[in-house]
Amino acid sequence: MSITIYHNPNCGTSRNTLTMIKSSGEDPDVIHYLETPPSRERLIELLAMMKLPPRALLRHKGTPYDELTLDDPTLSDDQLIDAMMVHPILINRPIVITPKGSKLCRPSEQVLALLERPVAHFVKEDGERVDYPPK
Question: Where is the signal peptide (predicted)?
Answer without folding.
Answer: none
